[in-house]
Amino acid sequence: MEELKTKAKSILEKMDLVGLKQKIDVLTAESGQGGFWKDHEEASKKMQELSALQKEVEEGKMLQLLIEEGSEKELVQLVEKLEIKLFLAGEYDKNGAILSIHAGQGGTEAMDWVSILFRMYTRFIESKNWKWQDVELSRGDEAGYKEVTIAVSGEFAYGLLKSEAGVHRLVRQSPFNADNLRQTSFALVEALPILDETVAVGIKDEDVEWDFFRSGGKGGQNVNKVSTAVRVRHKPTGLIVSCQSERYQGQNRENALKLLRAKLWEIEEEKKSQTEKNLRGAYKKPGWGNQIRSYVLHPYHLVKDLRTDYETNQTQAVLDGELQPFIDSYLRKYSR
Question: Which residues constitute the domain of residue 55?
Answer without folding.
Answer: 2-87
